[in-house]
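re: ur question from earlier - yeah i can do the single chain one, its not a big deal. heres the input i used so u can compare w yours
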Amino acid sequence: MTRVQLEELRGVVHPPGKLDSRAEHWAGRLYMRSVSLRITRLLLDTRWSPNQITGVMVVAGVLSGAALLVPGIGGAVLSVLFMQLYLLLDCVDGEVARWRKQYSPLGVYLDRLGAYLADAAVMIGMGFRASSLHIGPYLVAGLAAAIGVLILKASSDLVHVARADSGLAKATDASVVPRSSGLARVRRLASAVGIHRLCNGIECTLLLLVAALADLALGGLTATRVAVAAVTAVVWVLVPAHIVSIVASSRLKK
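and the output i got, formated as tokens:
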């Protein structure tokens, strides 16, 4: 079988606006889409379906959290690698689907499920890691962060449910801006700072790797425990702020 050229593939699987959308992670724009395009080209000659790729993606995301149970720098590195694999497959499954025109509600469901499980697994894993696999305040913090992350994701997805149940089209990127100019300025500032990214498994695993390196130099788990406390605090500051932002925006308006 003649292998498709990268430029031809890119023109189909990276349609105009795809890489500039709010849904595209910065790591995808920076480097992962270049890698995924080549993996996608290889998989087009196989029987792997988009949903099967997504299934492997879900496993990789959960394993990223489980890897944090491995003590020391090794567990942190392994967690980052699994999360990068998760991100890669999250790009590849959609690219294969767009090239083959194999779209399905199951694929969307598995993709969203993977996002929930991966981020929650990382939060739980960091709690176990900071508590040295014992029950204690850092484990509670990790569990609290996981619950908060699930609420953040669910509150966003419930916008689509509410609009669909009301017979409305999918919300646009512009509709996320709060109607209040004051809230809009606060949202732009928060977005510029980027502190919300710590709620994402990709950034969180990188933070935990930095903390593991600091712990390696200093001894103990102080840096990891500070990271867990910081992430949990950020998550629970964002939970009410995110819900207010949704209600104050045009996302739930006709």
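Residues 72-100 form the longest helix (29 residues). not sure if urs matches, ping me
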